Amino acid sequence: QVQLVESGGGLVQAGGSKRLSCAASGTIFSANVAGWYRQAPGKRRVLVATINPGGSTNYVDSVKGRFTISRDNAKNTVNLQMNSLKVEDTAVYYCNVVIGSSRFYWGQGTQVTVSS
Fold it and tell me: For the residues of 28-77, what is the DSSP string, one character each?
């Protein structure tokens, strides 16, 4: 049973920083593609960043240079460091892992609210 648990959300002022963390059980992040998605109110869930087993990362254009995805193999976590936050970054952030290219697993989500 794969379970993902996010933490680190909350309220932050524009220009501030937040660090999200996702802990996994039942799978190993280092062996699979992991990522962060977000869903703003009234909008669909969209990709924010991914990291593959080799450590290569990919970001949506709107967060490039501000967000950094990383993986801690010892703790089996995937993290998202978010700097220079903007009001438009407000969303529920979801951790995701893809196992065997076809099985998608999601965390419960963590709310990030950026105030102006």
Answer: -GGGSEEEEEEE-TTS--EEEEEE-TT--EEE-GGGTTTEEEEEETTTTE
